[in-house]
Design brief:
single chain, alpha/beta, 2 domains, 6-stranded antiparallel β-sheet, 16 strands, disordered C terminus, binds 2-acetamido-2-deoxy-beta-D-glucopyranose, glycoprotein, hydrolase, alpha-galactosidase activity
Amino acid sequence: MLWKVILLLMLALPTLALDNGLMRTPPMGWMSWGRFRCNTDCRNDPKNCISEALFVDMADRLVEDGWLKLGYKYLIIDDCWSFMSRDNKGRLMPDPIRFPNGIHKLAHYAHDRKLKLGIHANMGKQTCAGYPGTMLDQIETDAQTFADWEVDMLKFDGCYSNVNEQQKGFPLMSKALNATGRPIAYSCSWPMYRGGLPPSVNYSFLGEICNLWRNYDDIEDSWESVMRIVDWFFQNQADLQSVSGPGHWNDPDMLIIGNFGLNMEQSQAQMALWAIMAAPLIMSNDLRTLTGEARSILQNKAVIAINQDPLGIQGRRILQDEGHIEVFWRPLSKSASALVFLSRRTDMPYRYHSTLSLLNYTSSSYTAYDVFKDETVSLPSVNTHFTITINPSGVVMWYVYPDKSFEQTKETGGHPNFQRKYAHASQQRPKHNLAPILL
Ligand SMILES: *[C@@H]1O[C@H](CO)[C@@H](O)[C@H](O)[C@H]1NC(C)=O
Ligand SMILES: *[C@@H]1O[C@H](CO)[C@@H](O)[C@H](O)[C@H]1NC(C)=O
Ligand SMILES: *[C@@H]1O[C@H](CO)[C@@H](O)[C@H](O)[C@H]1NC(C)=O
């Protein structure tokens, strides 16, 4: 069965990837769109409009409330930041009333606090919200403008452009960003405008020019929207799972935890499934008013460590049970793995019985760490029966590791967050305990 593991690893590591050295693990941060959209009414809603003040507030929260320490370092300006026309040299410029000190100053503010600044632009005549877009002959100018402002990431959208313009524009922007000499992470919304699947989308090519890409619809503030995205990604996992990896990620869109559409069970489910997908953890919420519960889910160190696993292999759905329970699995470094049990039921907490062998785990002895309950479950054999209780529209998430690999040295390697609990864990890959083999 070793060959299957190797095959899986090879599939997950395309030969070529965008060579800017950025985003070796899925990016983490905060973005304005999901929560603040295109609210430009600073006169009547000064605290919530797209403005310098909003990004300064979020920068402060990211730093002072412990987000940055956990890896949430990108502060990303989405659509609606710019003035309605370009300046007299043809360059994009920010709205002077809402961004009185300009984007360069904001980048400094972010950098002084060890954050990275992201910005939004759009391949096409205008942005989705009607602000100036980037036509083919403006790509180099705009890339240089962002570099001059010391921006660290560009989200390049694709409204109001046709197939041919996108075919030319998205690769051209990648080249233009590279030519500035400044490492700027590049997020491409291209596949989303082409249906998200091969053959219309060439993911090998995308991996060579972009660090991440939006494949599918925008997320909305509802459980239904989260489930629609989850369904699409896992129904298409045969096409999508292998195209993701260090430096080039599928992006199922923002985390909406902390807004209005998800209860706590559903919030845990979004966090857990995004970790299984090796998805960017880009929140869009109001960090100034987040509840303690939302914060504890978004700041769960074990889930973050699973999301950030250095192998960067996207997980898959391995089971859809008749009882409306689904099981998701992601292989992790150090022969560990993550399992998520999701309940699609709407009746009551469901007691789910299984064994690891039913989930195709092969080696003999494991420990499972329940990341939301902060408890461990010992599974001395793959045939050991276990029962877990999964709440309606909720999850149970396990970090599963083979016992043998935890007997050797005192180091933990890629999972610093498990250090406290598993101080005896090994950094070496055990010779006989391979990652569970699943199809
Ligand atoms: C530009 O591309 C080259 C070749 O892929 C790469 O080595 C270099 O690091 C890139 N530079 C930037 C600034 O992205
Ligand atoms: C997809 O892109 C890769 C890498 O650039 C290229 O080698 C391949 O020919 C492309 N496939 C198709 C069907 O165009
Ligand atoms: C386990 O492996 C068998 C045989 O390859 C396969 O039919 C089954 O779907 C797998 N089960 C899971 C849960 O992956």
